[in-house]
Amino acid sequence: MGKLSKATLTKDRGASHPSILDIFVHILDDKKSWFYTYQTGKQDLPETKTRSLTDVRKLETEVDKYIHNFMRKLEPESINKPFRFTVSSGPEKGQLITWSLKGMLWHQVEEELQHRGEINALLWQENIDPPVTSWWRWEKASEEKTSRENKIRKRTV
Question: 6-156, what's its fold?
Answer without folding.
Answer: Four Helix Bundle (Hemerythrin (Met), subunit A) (1.20.120)
